[in-house]
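Tokens in:
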């Protein structure tokens, strides 16, 4: 996997261990040394003894260099990657009853804080979900959706919440189908970036070496390029998606609500109509029909928003 370089924030106790753990494992996979997380006896027999030792040492060094000094003092006696990994999980991924109750209470009392943007709010939610998954507690998609909707202030999101409860099954996901012009697009409130699996859809493109994007299911996928994609909208107008990540691993195109929010857009749902605003201008508009939002306008390719639980 060679020369790709990644900057991984060191785990120093104050940052989130569950998220650091996901990134650390992804980094080991990127370098092809993830087998070191199991005992030496379980590493593939096809390797020579020299190759096994090299993998074990590289993984151990990489994890050590990704820890802050205070954490390192607690695990300094662990001389293998697998024992070091297990020790870290025991120290910072406790499955005690008290911790399980604490995280569940944190989830079910989750509320949007005044002044906080939608991106940060959803990031806080995903951190809680990840912490729960790390101690083997899974929350169903519908339950996640209800918790997120209940966390939003009713004075600002009342119509959106009512519509989502009536029509959608998974947290913040709507699919956009663009006729024959490139397949399905998903507006995903949990995805960290706009992403596309098909290089041919980009009009402005450059390759990048390394980096990952977080999807709504907390999965991290490798980015191979970045660029812009143009969409034809109602009335013959066009909209441009900037900083779109090229991620061949995903199955569908994803439009990030967080990125729309960063770009100054707002999404409103009222009386069966979904609108995406930018300033005084409506850049997308759809009519809800049995969980499906069909974009209005004289377009050659209809855009369809539909609930989906798959990527």
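Residues out:
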């Amino acid at each position: 996997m060679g020369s790709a370089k990644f900057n991984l924030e060191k785990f120093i106790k104050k940052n989130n261990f569950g998220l650091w753990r996901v990134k650390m494992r992804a980094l080991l996979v990127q370098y092809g040394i993830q087998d070191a997380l199991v005992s030496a006896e379980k590493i593939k027999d096809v390797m020579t003894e020299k190759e096994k030792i090299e993998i074990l040492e590289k993984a151990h060094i990489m994890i050590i260099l990704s820890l802050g000094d205070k954490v390192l003092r607690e695990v300094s006696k662990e001389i293998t990657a697998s024992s070091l990994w297990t020790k870290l999980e025991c120290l910072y991924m406790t499955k005690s009853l008290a911790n399980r109750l604490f995280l569940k209470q944190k989830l079910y009392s989750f509320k949007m804080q005044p002044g906080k943007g939608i991106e940060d709010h959803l990031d806080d939610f995903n951190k809680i979900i990840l912490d729960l998954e790390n101690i083997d507690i899974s929350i169903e998609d519908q339950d996640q959706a209800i918790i997120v909707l209940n966390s939003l202030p009713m004075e600002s999101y009342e119509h959106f919440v009512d519509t989502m409860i009536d029509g959608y099954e998974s947290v913040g996901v709507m699919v956009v189908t663009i006729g024959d012009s490139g397949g399905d697009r998903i507006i995903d409130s949990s995805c960290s970036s706009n992403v596309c699996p098909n290089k041919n859809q980009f009009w402005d493109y450059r390759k990048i070496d390394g980096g990952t994007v977080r999807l709504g299911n907390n999965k991290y996928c490798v980015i191979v390029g970045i660029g812009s994609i143009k969409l034809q909208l109602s009335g013959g107008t066009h909209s441009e998606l900037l900083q779109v990540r090229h991620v061949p691993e995903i199955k569908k195109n994803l439009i990030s609500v967080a990125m729309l929010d960063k770009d100054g857009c707002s999404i409103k749902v009222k009386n069966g109509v979904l609108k995406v605003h930018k300033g005084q201008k409506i850049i997308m508009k759809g009519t809800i029909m049995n969980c499906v939002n069909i974009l209005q306008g004289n377009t050659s390719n209809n855009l369809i928003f539909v609930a989906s639980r798959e990527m």
